[in-house]
Amino acid sequence: DKVLAELIEPYELRVAKLREFLEDVKPSLHYDIVPLVDPYGPSVTDPDLQCLVVSEETRRGGEAVNKKRLENGLPELSLHEILLLKDPDHSQNEEEKISSSSLRQRLLGTLLRPPRRAPALPLRPYVIGLTGGTGSGKTSIAKRLGHLGAFLIDADKLGHAVYVPGGPAYEQVVAAFGAEILNEDRTINRKVLGAKVFGSQEQLKILTDIVWPEMARMFKEQIREAAAQGK
Predict the structure, then answer these.
(1) Would you list the domain boundaries of the chain?
(2) Minimum mean pLDDT among 86-100, 162-176, 211-225: which range?
(3) CATH number belonging to domain 138-229
(4) What GO biological process terms does the UniProt entry carry, in alphabetical order (predicted)?
(5) By CB distance 3.0 to 4.6 Å, which of 60, 62, 78, 191 could disulfide with 54?
(6) Span 32-36, average pLDDT
(7) Helical H runs in the chain?
């Protein structure tokens, strides 16, 4: 349940930082860094442990460890509680204590990575897929990218264009689902079509097998147009 789990540093890097910290504090200290694969780790099975360092927030966790140790026939650990430093710079949506979660909140949007090299793909145009649920801000982000010079391809518009009379999928869709999906002006009534397919995986697959290849072809045409414009 960590905030912004995707920004948690790799395990190897965290181990290296911890080792550096321990060596700074006391170079002669003997220690083992153990990866935790469950909430308890070795704290409930190692008979040589004597003390557990906790904070005011994690004292209950320490008490749970001791309960487990007693169940396992091991002596209780001495719980040494430390105080947590307050973060003077925390914002309204961050924790008051100095924490890695707050740090990741501040890093959001700042970790830029170079494009992944894919030898099979041309370097230009560089294609970005912009996805998200309703109201997630796709339109706003697309406008910002457009102002930066991006060539925009609207999947919704292509999805409508593929169905229009004379469009690449029109005849196939009508042939597959019948004239009852047509309005009086011979356009496809998408609500009627939707009612036919969305309750049936089989019918939906028939539709997507017709429409998606045509949309993919239209996308590729648009990408070639972007390349021709030097976008």
Answers:
(1) 5-107, 138-229
(2) 86-100
(3) 3.40.50.300
(4) coenzyme A biosynthetic process
(5) 62
(6) 88
(7) 11-25, 59-71, 100-107, 138-147, 155-161, 170-177, 190-197, 201-228
